[in-house]
Design a protein that fits this description.
Helices cover 40% and strands 18% of the residues. The protein is an alpha/beta fold. The protein has 2 domains: 2-171 and 222-250, NAD(P)-binding Rossmann-like Domain (Rossmann fold, 3-Layer(aba) Sandwich); 189-221 and 253-320, UDP-galactose 4-epimerase, domain 1, CATH 3.90.25.10. It has a 7-stranded parallel beta sheet with strand order 3-2-1-4-5-6-11, sandwiched between helices. Bound molecules: nicotinamide-adenine-dinucleotide. Residues 7, 9-13, 31-36, 50-52, 72-74, 76, 91, 95, 114, 116, 167, 169-170, 183 line the site of nicotinamide-adenine-dinucleotide.
Length: 322
């Protein structure tokens, strides 16, 4: 079965294309390489273009006989979204509407969507269950919530099956060393700490050291990209088997502080990454941890690669091989 993977040249999309291929699906990668990489397209055909172009999308569906879509393509920088909301609502919302139009025209009835923990905004509880109020605090989070709402209504009106997967902090690299994380600019903690350990950046800023957490630094739920990839394959299979549509948290249910991440990089690299304490950043909650129990029961999915040591070791191996 051919599956269209939008954003399949990006970080999570490329790992998922590999997982799809190894599970017997045939990924078709759609990407315009605005932030993806040609070296990451190794499994399946490539169709190059921008989701914003409806004619291009029509052609993709009419010539590729895909039966489902996994939709990763998006703009992903939370801070940038506050400065430039238009870019986020256009690329993450309008382009998704165009994608859904083309799916309807082509009779494609299944979509897995990359959502985010950003839909929760500043959470009231930890861990966070899926029925926690959704109050995004950035245009990025708002754009993800908008698409989730569209999917609910389209699902009911047009008999479309959908799964919205709310990732917590995606991280790590393919354990076989074929893929890894490479965002430009990089804003994710683990690659930044690794760059500091390798002397590629002078220091790592620790934003907030007075949070009510075990060492005063912010706690996040780190989920290995290979575990995310497996969850996508399971979500797709769930829909193809006629399962109900869901929004599901993808995390481990366990949090780590920024200082624990820095210590894990120091262990993996054998050198202490230079770090500097800095004030809290606006909009950064103290603790963001998933309650992943719904994904466990709906998808029979449990993370296998998401110990902090394995995450950091695979990421370190990837970055130091480049
Ligand atoms: N990385 C994380 O921690 C994280 C957390 C939560 C949610 N997400 C979501 O997961 C998805 C993938 O994230 P990622 O980290 O792999 O990002 P990424 O930037 O590595 O991948 C996104 C890919 O989409 C492509 N793309 C973007 N807009 C496009 C368009 N209009 N047409 C064609 N291609 C387009 C880019 O070229 C890139 O290859 C995104 O939707 C993101 O919002 C990521």
């Amino acid at each position: 079965m051919r599956v269209l993977v939008t954003g399949g040249a990006g970080y999570i999309g490329s790992h998922t294309a590999k997982a799809l291929h190894h599970s017997g699906f045939e990924p078709v990668i759609l990407d315009d390489f605005r932030s993806g990489h040609r070296w990451a397209v190794k499994w399946g055909d490539l169709v190059e273009g921008d989701l914003d172009h409806s004619d291009f999308l029509r052609k993709v569906f009419s010539t590729n006989s895909v039966q489902a879509v996994i939709h990763f393509a998006a703009s992903i920088e939370v801070n940038e979204s506050v400065r430039d909301p238009r870019k986020y609502f256009w690329n993450n919302c309008v382009s998704t509407l165009k994608l859904l139009d083309s799916m309807r025209e082509a009779g494609v009835k299944h979509i897995v969507f990359s959502s985010s923990a950003a839909v929760y905004g500043d959470p009231e509880t930890a861990p966070i269950p899926e029925d926690h109020p959704t109050r995004p605090v950035s245009p990025y989070g708002e754009s993800k919530l908008f698409v989730e709402k569209v999917l609910r209504w389209y699902g009911m009106a047009y008999a479309m099956g959908w799964m919205a997967l709310r990732y917590f902090n995606a991280c790590g690299a393919d354990p076989e060393g074929e893929l890894g994380e490479c965002h430009e600019p990089e804003s994710h903690l683990i690659p930044l700490v690794i760059a500091a350990a390798r002397g590629k950046r002078p220091t790592i800023q620790v934003y907030g050291t007075d949070y009510p957490t075990p060492d005063g630094t912010a706690v996040r739920d780190y989920i290995h990209v290979t575990d995310l990839a497996e969850a996508h394959v399971r979500a797709l299979q769930h829909m193809l088997d006629g399962g109900e549509s869901y929004a599901l948290n993808l995390g481990t249910g366990k949090g780590h502080t920024v200082r624990e991440v820095i210590a894990a990089v120091a262990r993996a690299s054998g050198s202490q990454p230079p770090s500097e304490d800095a004030p809290r950043r606006a909009g950064d909650p103290p603790v963001l941890v998933a309650d992943p129990s719904l994904a466990h029961s709906v998808l029979a999915w449990k993370p296998k690669h998401s110990s902090l040591n394995e995450i950091v070791q695979t990421a370190w191996k990837w970055h130091s091989s480049r």
